């Protein structure tokens, strides 16, 4: 690595450094260094112009670094422009920047040097910048071949130094640039799937062979990914390391889950044999007599009458039955249902409780590991007495709700009956009104014969037409009502028609008949005659 170039007598120059490496290698090292540096932050990069913008924590403003070609294709120049507000503090940051870049190039295997006669000035930037004076000439680090390194000095007499390599970090990560290895990504995905399988295996207990096959596939992918991420190849070593770790953890978890199957089977077999032997030696598993009276007689008799009777009262029975496996418990539950215990039932693989039509309660509990079943039967009174306050309150609320619903239904039926009677009364009133209108019409017809007739007033015609139209509609409804088997369901429509009739009657009665012409009266009588005839046909 070479330090910033000095040009005595030429005044202040923009800071620059020449490296014996191609612009591609130098720009790649520069980008890699800024991305992983703790002292600088990459803000922006332009791959086309090989320019980057970065910042330093202790300096205000932004630095701009540009990689340009040197005097020949094998050399490059890095020019750095500092922010105008940086001041003298930027000198140490620039020196650190060049040192880190040189170390990065040495890690990547690129050699660098600085010809003593080369000087390049960075073009003036559009933003205000400050020119950094170059520090006094420093020794030039040579990255020459091994023979020159053995000599211990370069051409300027300065000792050679190389950046130390962290072997552990190099194993976990890579310095490769470019795209991430597809094989590394595939290995990571497969290892994560294998890890999920490992957690699931703790409960599923898969075969050991399946776990090993899965592990071999993941290991082969990790090995291939490791080879693809060797120095100078593709990026993605960290993904490969994570995939390998996940594969190891997944293998351990899956093997634990797989080997647990055999131990559980042995435990189950031991438990079954222990249960059988304990049942044979249990003093509480003796021959019993099943209750034939009281509430206990309502429970079905089991296939094997062996166990212990804890209680046998008229209103409460508690019995333990021995030698009951899962199939026999399921059969006994079925018999219990056949005996009528199906109300408010609660059921699971090892429990069943329900009530019969009389309110008697039964509770069955199966202990599969011991081959035992507890049968508890209570009369309705005993069950009620043994209920907790909370259960009693819940039952009372349910009963109260049922009573309220019954009362509500009775009220609705009563209201429907009242509506039906009201409809019948309204129908009689309409018939009476129609009869009176018919008599009035006959009377007015007789009087109209001796009077001059003229044109019908539009208002009178409109009112009478509306009345006749409504009455036809009413008669149609009454015909439908009289022939219907669900007259209470038509009460809403009937009440609506009564409201329309009331409005129509008020409209006609509100008209001043003293101003009617003979034609108006004649038209009125004609409408009423037709309406009465239609009403008579309905009645």
Class of secondary structure makeup: alpha+beta
Q: Specify the CATH architecture of the largest domain.
A: 2-Layer Sandwich
The strand order across the widest sheet is: 7-8-9-13-12-11-10
The CATH superfamily of the largest domain appears as START domain
Pfam family, one: DUF6591
InterPro entries: DUF6591
Biased composition (Basic and acidic residues): 387-446
Domain DUF6591: 412-538
Summarize the structure.
With 539 residues, the chain is an alpha+beta fold.
Tags for this entry?
seven-stranded antiparallel β-sheet; six-stranded antiparallel β-sheet; transmembrane; TATA-Binding Protein; 13 strands; 14% strand; transmembrane helix; Alpha-D-Glucose-1,6-Bisphosphate, Chain A, domain 4; disordered N terminus; alpha+beta; 52% helix; membrane; 539 residues
Can you describe this structure?
The protein has 539 residues and is an alpha+beta fold. The chain has 5 domains: 15-109, Alpha-D-Glucose-1,6-Bisphosphate, Chain A, domain 4 (2-Layer Sandwich); 205-257; 286-378, 2-Layer Sandwich (TATA-Binding Protein), CATH 3.30.310; 392-451; 458-537. Helix content is 52%, strand content 14%. The chain contains 13 helices and 13 strands. The chain has helices at 23-36, 90-107, 146-151, 167-172, 182-204, 208-228, 237-281, 326-338, 380-386, 389-448, 458-483, 491-509, 518-538; strands at residues 15-19, 41-46, 51-55, 63-69, 76-83, 129-130, 286-287, 306-312, 316-322, 343-347, 351-355, 361-367, 372-378. The chain has a 7-stranded antiparallel β-sheet with strand order 7-8-9-13-12-11-10. Strands 1, 2, 3, 4, 5 and 6 form a 6-stranded antiparallel β-sheet that branches. Strand 2 and strand 3 (51-55) form a beta hairpin. Helix 1 (23-36) packs across helix 2 (90-107), helix 5 (182-204) runs antiparallel to helix 6 and helix 6 (208-228) runs antiparallel to helix 7 (237-281). The longest helix is centred in the last third of the chain and has 60 residues, at 389-448. The chain is flat, with a radius of gyration of 53 Å. The relative contact order is 0.05. Residues 139-151 have a biased composition (Low complexity). Residues 387-446 have a biased composition (Basic and acidic residues). Residues 127-163, 387-458 are annotated as: Disordered. This is Actin. Residues 412-538 form the DUF6591 domain.
